Amino acid sequence: MRKKLVVGNWKMHGNRASNALLLSGLKEAGPWTADVAVCVPFPYITETALALTGTQIAYGSQDCSAHEQGAYTGEVSSAMLADIGCRYAIVGHSERRAYHQESDQLVADKAKAALAHGITPIVCVGETLAEREAGQTEHVVKRQLAAVIHTLTHCIGEIVLAYEPVWAIGTGLTATPEQAQAVHAVLRQQLRAATQKADAMRILYGGSVKADNAALLFAQADIDGGLIGGAALKAADFSAICRAAG
Ligand code: 13P
């Protein structure tokens, strides 16, 4: 039985005051049966770490560099993230693939860099609306995952995978539980061909998950939790989603 994981992706939202409010709300709302984490903007990771001391809530970043260290202005290395206690780093979010031209290979290299420092990469895959309508969903997500499998080889079992259909992100459109499960099953099958750990790996669903649709999504056989955007910015909403994963 896989333990569910619910991760809040704050994206580029918040400030010190609003973060403090959100985190104290979460501390009051917990604990939950599921594993819970928040992935926050880089400048706020340390303060988040302090606020979450002694709680079950883990924390992480929304990206990491593929490079180890050096003259890479503006980049943040996995070593630095590990140094400040990050458990997770989201890599390959569709917003980074789209707005920062991140390739499948770069995403795979970032996942490798994270793992090298003991950070669990949450690797995002997902198709655009045009790709779905062209019947390419399976092809796209398998191509994205294949790059990670090829790069990580025997370490692939250590990642968390997240299926986030691009058309469902921030749009209020959610994949139906059946649509999401169908893709999760494809991804699980691809992982099974690569590692004996496939059935222990967590595959999260992301894309307009809310308190009122979370339970049905999380009830699907291959959906092991969620990667939550907008609804992770309010303690009551995020907490209700964490509870739905229990
Ligand atoms: P929303 O929950 O706002 O659709 O965002 C999903 C997401 O991109 C999480 O990484």
Provide a brief overview of the structure.
The chain has about 250 residues and is an alpha/beta fold. The protein has ten helices and eight strands.
Bound molecules: 1,3-dihydroxyacetonephosphate
Note the total helix count. 10
Shape: globular
Beta percentage is 15-25%
State the CATH superfamily name: Aldolase class I
Overall pLDDT metric: 97
Q: Give the tally of β-strands.
A: 8
What integer value in Å does the Rg equal? 17 Å
**CATH-level-2 architecture:** Alpha-Beta Barrel
Helix content: 25-40%
Compressed to H and E, one letter per element, the order equals EHEHEHEHHEHHEHEHEH
Content-based structural category: alpha/beta
Give the distance, in angstroms, between the N- and C-terminal Cα atoms.
Answer: 13 Å
Main-sheet strand order equals 1-2-3-4-5-6-7-8
Residue runs with pLDDT of under 50 for 5 or more positions? none
Explain what the structure shows:
- The chain is of the alpha/beta class and 246 residues long.
- The chain has a single domain, classed as Aldolase class I (TIM Barrel, Alpha-Beta Barrel).
- The protein has 10 helices and 8 strands.
- The chain has helices at residues 16-29, 45-51, 78-83, 94-99, 104-116, 129-133, 137-152, 177-192, 214-218, 235-244, and strands at 5-9, 35-39, 57-61, 88-91, 120-125, 160-163, 203-206, 225-228.
- Strands 1-2-3-4-5-6-7-8 form an 8-stranded parallel barrel, surrounded by 5 helices.
- α7 packs parallel to α8 (177-192).
- The longest helix has 16 residues, at 137-152.
- It is globular, with a radius of gyration of 17 Å.
- The mean pLDDT is 97.
- The structure holds 1,3-dihydroxyacetonephosphate (13P).
